[in-house]
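If your schedule permits, I should be very grateful for your opinion on a structural question. Kindly check, if you would, that the fold set down in the C-alpha cells agrees with what the sequence suggests. Thank you for your consideration; the sequence and its C-alpha cells are set out here:
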Amino acid sequence: MTILVTGGAGFIGSNFVLDWLAASDEAVLNVDKLTYAGNLHNLAALSGDPRHIFVRGDIGDAQLMGALLAQHQPRAVLNFAAESHVDRSILGPAEFIQTNIWGTFQLLEQVRAYWAALDASAKATFRLLHVSTDEVYGSLAASEPAFTETNRYEPNSPYSASKAASDHLVRAYHHTYGVPVLTTNCSNNYGPLHFPEKLIPLMIVNAQAGKPLPVYGDGMQIRDWLYVKDHCSAIRSVLAGGRVGETYNIGGWNEKPNLDIVHTVCDLLDELKPRADQQSYRTQITYVTDRPGHDRRYAINARKIERELGWKPAETFETGIRKTVQWYLDNPQWVAQVQSGAYREWVATQYAQA
C-alpha cells in the first residue's frame, strides 16, 4: 500500500512524512516542487529508505500527477502543497493563485479520473485529504466564540482567499463528482523544520544572530498555536476515521497574543543559551508598522475532531515551545542551510521599516 503526499518537503508535510514512516511501513510517494520553503534536508533521515519515494514536481502539472497516480496506485492522497505566507501573498499574490487554486484544481482533476477508474473495493476506501487553514474564516473579535466547521468563510488576505477557494473546489468535487474528500483547517503550527520567515522560528534565529525581533503593530494579534507533531497525529486520525465530505478543525487550545509568544521565546533562550552580555533577548524586540489587513484574532474550536475521532493535542504550549526552541539550538546547520541569499533579501525587504 502507498499514500501520495504533496508538499512533503515543506514544514508540515515533511514532519508528516517523518512521523508517518516512524509509525508505519506503508510507503510514501512524496511530490514537492521545492520552492524556497521546500527543503530536502528536512527528509535527510529518510535517505536510502525504500519506503520514501521522492519526486520533484508541481501539483499543477496534470501529466505528471496523472502518471504518478497510475504508476503507484495510492490508496490516499494528502494535499499539503501550498504557498502559505501572508506577507508574501500581499507583496506577490500571483504565486498563491497559481499554486493554491490552479494547482488544487489540476490535482482534483487527476484524482477524480484516477478514482473513477478504480475497482469497487479500492474506490470505496480511497480518500483525498486536503490540508487547509483557519485563516479562511477571517478575523474574530475578542468576545466572539472560536471558529467551528460551520463558520462562514471571510478571508482577508490573498493567501487566505486562495486557500478558501481551494477548500470550495474540494467540496465541489465531492458534491458534484463524488470524490471521497476530507478537509482539515488547522491553526498556527510551530515546531521543528519551520522555515524562518514565520513568527517563532524568525524570533529564535534573529535572537541568536543579535538582530532585531520585529513585532507587528502592538503585538496583540491573537492566534491559536498547534505543535506540528500534534497536527500530524490529527491528520492521521482524520485519514483513518473521518467521515467523507466532512471538515475537521484542528487546534491546540492555545490562544496567545504574538507579543506573549515573543516574550516566551526570549525567556527560553535566556535560560537555554544566554547572551554573552547577560542581558535578556527581550531587549532586541522592535515594533514595526503593522501589515495591511492584519487579522486581529483566530481561535479554533476543535471539539468535533475530539468528539468523533477521539483526538486531542498531546503537547501544551509550554512543552511544545520548549521542544521547538531546543530543536533550533541543536540544529544550527539546518538553519544556516535554509538562510540563502534570497531568504536574507526577503527578510531585509519585509522589515526595512523597523
